[in-house]
Specification:
Tetracycline Repressor, domain 2, Arc Repressor Mutant, subunit A, DNA-binding, mainly alpha, 10 helices, homodimer, about 200 residues
DNA sequence: GATAAAGTATACGATATCGTGTACTTTATT
DNA sequence: AATAAAGTACACGATATCGTATACTTTATC
C-alpha cells in the first residue's frame, strides 16, 4: 500500500466522519482535508468535487450494512418465527448508528433535489430490497392469505420504522432500549401473524 | 390594511413559494425580496433573519392543514368504518401538495440539526397528535383487543405513510392515484381490523 | 544519492450571501 | 402643501467557500 493509497484512505475516513457529524452541506472540503491531515490540493487530486466524495462515502458505508439485506422466505418454517427474524433484522438495520447517520445525509440530499434523489437513492434503496423480496415470496407461496405483499411489507416495515427509525432520525429521540425494541417486534409480528391467519381461515 | 401590511403579506407569500421550490438553504433573502417586489431593506425590517421567516411560513402553512388534526374515537360506531375515515384523513394529509413541500423543509432542517428539530418539530408534530389520540382512546375503550395503541398507530400510519408519503417525499415518485390510494386504505383497514378482531376472540 | 511522483503551503480569483448604513423617494395623513 | 412613516436603491464590509496555480518539500525507487 503506497503513500497515495494511505492518503486516499485517510480522506475517506475523514469524509465519513465529517459528513456524518455535519451533513453534506455544512462540510467543507477544507475541513475534510484538515481532518485527514492532507493538503487541500491533495484532496482535490483524489476527488474533483464534494459530490464525488459523497458517492464514495455512501458506497463504502452501504457495504457495512449489506449483510442485512439478505432474507429468504422458507415455506417450511413457521411464519411467526420468520417474521420475528425479519423484524429483528429490520430493527438491527434501523438502529445501527452508521445507518442512522448515513441515511440522514442521503435523505436530506434526496429531499433537496430530485436529481440527487435519483443518483443516491438508487444505491440506498438496495438496503430494503432484500427485505421486500421476503414478502413477495411469502405471498407467492400463499403464506400471506389474501394480503398483498406491498401492503404487508408496508405495515410491517412501516410500524417498525415509525417507532424505531423516524423518531430518531427526525426528532432526535434516543435509540430504542432493549426492552422496548423487543416489545415492538413481538407485538408487530403477532399482530401481523394474526391478521394473516384470520384472512386464511 | 396599510401599505406595511400589504408588503408583509407579499413577503410571506413570496417566502412560501421560494422555500417550497428551493428549500430553506438554497433560498436567499435577496430572492425572496425580489419575488415579493420589495427591497431587501424592507424585508429585513419585517424579518430580522431567514429563520424567523421560516418559522412564520411553517406556522402559516400548518394552519391550512389543521382541520385534518381532529379525530375522535366513537365507541358506538363500527371499528372498520372509523378506521376507513381515519385512513382517508391520513391519506388526505399526506397527499396534500402543501404538506409534502412543507414537510420536506421541516424534515430537512430537523435532520440537519437537533436544535432546529426542537424548534420546528414541536409545531409540526401537532399534525399527527389528533390522529394518535384516536388510537389511545380506542385502546382505552377496549376496542383494540390486546394491541397497544402505540404499535397499532405505528402499523396503521406506518403502512399508509410508507406507501403514500415517503416514496414521494424522498424518492420523488408521483402521487398515489385515486385507485391505488383506495386499495391501500381498504387493505390496510381490513388487515388491521382482522388482527384486532382475532386478538379479541 | 539522483530522479520522479506525490504531497504541501500559501496565496489567489471568483462567487455568493449575509446583514447594515446612508441618502433619497413614495405614500398616507393632517 | 407639510410632515412623518415606510419603502427604495445602492453600495458597503464581512465572511465563507469553491477550485486552481505556483513554487517548494517529502518520499519511494532505481
Amino acid at each position: 500500500m503506497g503513500r497515495s493509497d494511505n492518503k486516499h484512505n485517510d480522506i475517506l475516513c475523514a469524509a465519513i466522519r465529517e459528513f456524518c457529524e455535519k451533513g453534506m452541506m455544512a462540510t467543507t472540503m477544507e475541513s475534510i482535508a484538515c481532518r485527514a491531515n492532507v493538503s487541500k490540493r491533495t484532496l482535490y487530486k483524489h476527488y474533483p468535487c464534494k459530490e464525488t466524495l459523497l458517492d464514495s462515502v455512501v458506497t463504502l458505508l452501504l457495504e457495512r450494512i449489506e449483510p442485512l439485506q439478505k432474507s429468504h422466505y422458507d415455506p417450511n418454517r413457521p411464519l411467526l418465527e420468520q417474521l420475528r427474524e425479519l423484524g429483528n433484522k429490520v430493527l438491527a438495520l434501523v438502529c445501527d448508528e452508521d445507518y442512522l447517520r448515513l441515511s440522514r445525509i442521503v435523505i436530506i440530499e434526496s429531499m433537496r433535489s430530485e436529481r440527487e434523489a435519483l443518483r443516491l437513492n438508487e444505491k440506498f434503496s438496495d438496503c430494503e430490497r432484500g427485505l421486500h423480496s421476503w414478502f413477495a415470496n411469502a405471498a407467492k407461496a400463499g403464506a400471506l392469505g389474501n394480503l398483498s405483499p406491498m401492503v404487508g411489507a408496508a405495515m410491517f416495515y412501516g410500524a417498525i420504522k415509525e417507532v424505531a427509525y423516524w423518531d430518531q432520525a427526525i426528532s432526535w429521540k434516543p435509540m430504542l432500549g432493549e426492552k422496548e425494541a423487543r416489545a415492538l417486534i413481538n407485538e408487530t409480528c403477532e399482530c401481523f401473524a394474526r391478521a394473516v391467519a384470520a384472512s386464511q381461515a
